Amino acid sequence: MLTSVRSLMAATVLAGSAMVAAPAAAQDIGIELSGNAAVVSEYRFRGVDLSGGDIAIQGGVDAALPAGFYIGTWGSSLDEDTVGYGHTELDIYGGWSTDISDTVSFDVGVLAYLYPNAGPGDFDYIEFYSSVGVAVGPAEVTLGVAYAPDQDSLGSTDNFYIYTDVGVGIPDTPISLSGHLGYTDGFLTFTNNSKAWDWSIGADVALGDVVSVGVAYVGAEGDIVAPAYDFTDDAVVVTLAASF
Description:
This protein is mainly beta. The chain has helices at about 25-30, 80-85; strands spanning about 30-40, 45, 50, 55-65, 70-75, 90-100, 105-115, 125-135, 140-150, 155-170, 175-185, 195-205, 210-220, 235-244.
């Protein structure tokens, strides 16, 4: 059964990030900073609801380092009563990305999921990830995997996740469309056999260079239902995001 979740940059709607001027010292050594903030109608991770159907506040900061390396952090509010991991999730990650060619990119890294005000027990865990992206005209297709090795917070078992994302920008418009399909094999599911599919389809509209609004239909498989709440019901998620 699920004990602690989030995923790899799991947003229900794709949002871009624009680089901002870093402090002079950072610029001198080739560091570029970017940030993001969002209000979502509910926080979905791999199709699973982590905010109890309520609004969540999210945001993060990324630092692009020389030679393709990067580090960053991202956080979200949680629903303390239904989720059980406290009211805050904090993710810290680092990795390396590169363009293999004009149309192919590669990314690899490690991500720590932290729940600083969770109750007694082990909830924090680490996941390793990698992805390949291919640009085809106005579309980009990404194939990614994530693996969380055996940890106490995962019931001394592991978790494997594979997914594909498709994003298409409609030419000469501020509109982009996105689709996602993922498959989990391991501890982080709400199914009796520890296997589950999740999916989403959405659209995003850029309101200028900074703000975007998105809507997505999101769902996941699940046959384990909490006494008063179903974490895997399909839902329409609305996002108001800003990148800077």
